[in-house]
Every structure is written in structure tokens, then in C-alpha cells.
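Loading example: each entry is read as two labelled lines plus one structure line.
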Amino acid sequence: MATTTPAAPATDVPARGPARRRLRQGRAEARAGWAFLLPFGVMFTLVFLVPIVIALRASLFKSVASGGGLYGGGELVESFVGLGNYVDVLTNERFWAGMGRVVLYAAFQIPVMIMLALAIALLLDSLLVRRVGALRLSVFLPYAIPGVVAAMVWLYLYSPEISPFVKLAASLGFDLNFMGSTAILASMANMTTWTYTGYNMLIFLAALQAIPHDIYSAARIDGASSWQIVRHIKVPLVRGASLLAVLLSIIGTVQLFNEPTIMATANSWMGADYTPMMMAYNTMMGESSPSGDGPASAISIVMAIFSGLLAVVYTLLQRKADR
Amino acid sequence: MTTTLATPAPRRTIAQLLAPTTGDEPPRSLAPRRRARIITVVVLTVTLLYFLFPIFWVIIASSKSNADLIASNSLWFADIQYAQNYEKLISWTQGHFWRWVANSVLYSGAAGVIGTLISVSAGYSLAKFRYRGRGLATGVIMAGLLMPVALLTIPLYVVFNGIELTNTIWAIIIPSCVSPFGVFLGRIYAQTSVPTELMEAARLDGASELRIFATIVLRLLAPAMVTIFLFIFVATWNNFLLPLMMISSPELKPVTLGLYGMMSYFAPQKGAVMMGALLGVLPVIVLFLGLQRYWQAGLAAGAVKS
């Protein structure tokens, strides 16, 4: 990088016209700008752009082992199948079943989490609460715990023989089951909510604290109640922050992987394709058929397009609602 | 020269962001009523129970044998077996446990340092230099911010397999370094806290661009760098899919992958697993508590700007 640092041109240029000087300066600026962008640019290309191109290409091919094992002895023959992998994905019932679960999951988990985060942020921002620092930290603490580890802890908290909740319910005469085929989605949603509410709460809190306090005083003088201030000033002013929070949540949910993977260690009926991301992983690793780079890439691309569509639709809906 | 330059704008921004929490008494007319206060206390107590109970329970559970987990009161200590569970944790992980924690520290630390430097440099470039292609570069990187990263992991595996870097530390460190969010933050901070006049003055003094960056800009952006470092560090520590795909040797596993393997492939002592969970998150929690105000500041920049 050190080689691309031009000396400052401005000082020693005699008066040869400001236009030429500006041109030279512009070139030097462009060179320096590119030089500072370069290290990230190279890494970004390697980690984001190249994989996208490779995935696009790979999705048009399918590897077929000519003999022996898939990754072992036999030679892999790559054959061009056009959009065949996409057709396989789009006509695969298990893919759509997984997609359905993810959409259902997003449809109730995201609103619950965002509302909870907003409510806590509003409480912490109100004058009702004293120890804001400690509370904020407690709510945010789960975010420091890796999703997989959090999922392991909750899995044990759900496990019938050791769960304090199941025991408590049993002593009250209920039969609580967190792992049933319908309850399990809610059980996983709870894991995600527990981990990410604090993160979203902080986004809201930051947005709330950016609102000048004069507005509240003015509203008070005009006779507004606390509730009216929340309803008509605070909530509308954090909409921008909520858009960001919801978009990141949608993108996160489409890739749902950690929670179901951990859950599947105790519930083998969930299989290798409970969510599309699990399906993509297991397709790549050859534990689900059809397997290999091609089909796995096709699943990834379909999911990326799908999450992009969801994000665009949500943004448009919110814009429309704001008008 | 630089000591006086190092103090201004960004630190004050953080101080301002944190200011509302440090007790300025509200005017009388804004002070809330008593009933509202009681409801608030109840709601917050329930909230705190929800967020802190699992952590409390892990501390309890990691002190128990399997038999006690089933039989004893699950909300309090029984026969305390921390030492036995620790021994089991070490033997079940075949002595690799602390190696895994050290690996996590290495991967997260290296990715954090490299990632922060390249993010700040790129953010500075996008904020303070004019050149053709800048708009496009900004757009592409910001699109990367909304890219579902897990989906990239599959083709990334293909790429790293192709250059024979899978099952090496680089397969974790290189992808983890690249943080569009870091560039986003670096750009915002550079826009608000690096004065163009200062850069021009330094150029007139004959300083090279690299020197300006290393001696002036990096100091001005120090608070931003701590925020970006923390984001990348925690994201790397928490990542599970990437090591799951890339790493197969036990001695290269990070702690998340190691614990998952321990839990899924054997039928281990549950108390020992919970102890592993507890010890495995301790380093990141310590780092996180020590530097938590920087998170606030970083998120504030994101929330207010967008």
C-alpha cells in the first residue's frame, strides 16, 4: 500500500493555471482514494463477489460421480444442466415445506420481537426508570452469547426430564411439551427472541435518544399526555430505525440454521431439511439428495432472491404506510 | 501536533449519546405519576427474569450431576459438582476445550484487528475522497450489508476448497474480516469527525497520504475503531455455520463448533455441557461488559443515519 502514496502536489506547482493544478490534484486524490479502498476491495471481492459468480455458474451444473464414492475414489463428471437445478429446487416439496416454516416463523417471531424491543426501549427512555444502564445491559447480555450456545441452553431448558418449566407445569397439573411438531417452531422463535431483542432494543434506544427533548416539553405545554407523546411523537420518529431492524431480522430469519440444527440433535424427526438453509448445507455436504455444489448453489440463490424480495416488499409497504 | 488533534469530536459524540442516562433530573412537570412507576417496576421485573433466568440456570445446571438435574430442585444448587463436571468437560473434549477457546480468541481477535483496519481505511476513502467509481463501490458494499451471509458460506466453501484453504485458520479469518457494516460505520464516522481542512493543512505541510492516515485519521477514528472491532469480534466468535463447513480437525475448531460436536455426537453429562457453555462464553462476555458503551455508540450511528 505504501507504494501508492503520492506526494502532495499543491505546494511546489508554480502558477501554471488553476485548471491544470486542479486536474493534477484530482488525479492524486483519485489515486489515494482507490489505494485506501483497495485492501477491503480485494477481500470483499474474494469473499462476496467471487462466491456469487461461482454460485451462479455452479448452479447451472451438476456433478455426477462416474464411479466410487461421491468425494472419494470416483471421478466427478460435471455436466451442464441449464436451469435444471432451479427446476429441481422450485418443484421440491421439501424445499417449500421448509420455506413455509421459515415464513410462518418470521411472521410471528419478528413482530413479537420488534414490539418487545420497542416497548423496552420506550420504557427505558421514559422518565419512569432509574437504573437504565444496568437494565439495558441485562437485556442486551444474551446477544453476547453465541446463538448455538444459547440454543443448547434452551434445548436443555425444554428437555422434559430436566426442564424447570415442565416440572413446574407438571406440579400444577399441566403437561407441557416444547418439542411437539407444532410447538417446536414457537420454541425456536423464543430462542431467537431471547438472543436478539436486546440488539433491536439498542437500535430503538439510540434512535429515541436522538430526539431533541424540547419536543416533549413543547408537547407537554400543549397538554399532551405521556401516552400521546409516545404514540404521536416517539413511535413515528423511530420508524427509520424500525425499518432497519425489521429488514435485518427478515434477512436473518431466511437463513435460519443454528436453532433448528441444535433442536434436531434431540429431535431426529426434524430431518436434514427442516429449513431451507439446513437443506442447502446438507445438500452441499452430500447428506441430502440431489447433492453437490450445483443443487446447493441453486438453493442458496433461490433463497437470496426470496429474501431480497421480502425485503423490497416490506420496504415498499412501509413507505406506503408512511404516506 | 497530534495530541491536541486526538481529543475532539468523536469522543464527545459518544459522551453525548450516553448523556441522557446519567441523571439529569427531569423538570417537575415531566416527572411521572406513582401508579405508572409501579406498573413499570412490575413489567421490568418480568422482563429481567426472562432475559436473565437462562443465564442463572446455566450456573446452577453446571454444578449438577445428571441424576441431580433430574431429581433435585432445578432452581437451586444441590450437591455442588463443579470440579467433577469440569473434569468431565475436559475428558469429553479430549483435552481440547481450552484449545477451542484459544482458537476462538485467535480467530476473533485476528479478524477483528485486520477487519477494523481495512474497514476504516475503506470508509475513510468513501467518505473523504472524490473519484470515479466511488458511488458504485459504495452501492455494492452497502448491498453487501443486506446480503444473507449464511447463503454466501456455501459458495465460499467452494472457493476456499478450490484454493485449498479449507480446514486452515484462514478459512475462518479471511471471510470474517470482511464486514460491510464496518465500512458503513467507518464511513459515517469519517464523514462526521475527520475535518477536510485538517487533511489539507497536513498536505500543505508535505505529509504523504499514508502518513496523514496513520498519524491523524486513525487517531480521530479511534472510538469508531473500537466499535467496529467489537462488532467483528463478536460476529466471528458467534459464527457457527462457517466453521461447521470449513473446519474438520478437532485442534482447529472454535469453541462454538467444539461444543456442538460434544453435544451432538456423544451423550454427555449435561452439567458438563452447560459448564462448557458457561466457560466458552466467558471471554466474550468480559470483553463485552468492559466495552459496552462503544456498542451503544456504533448502533446509534447506524440507527440515526438510516
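The first strand of chain A starts at residue 61 and ends at 65.
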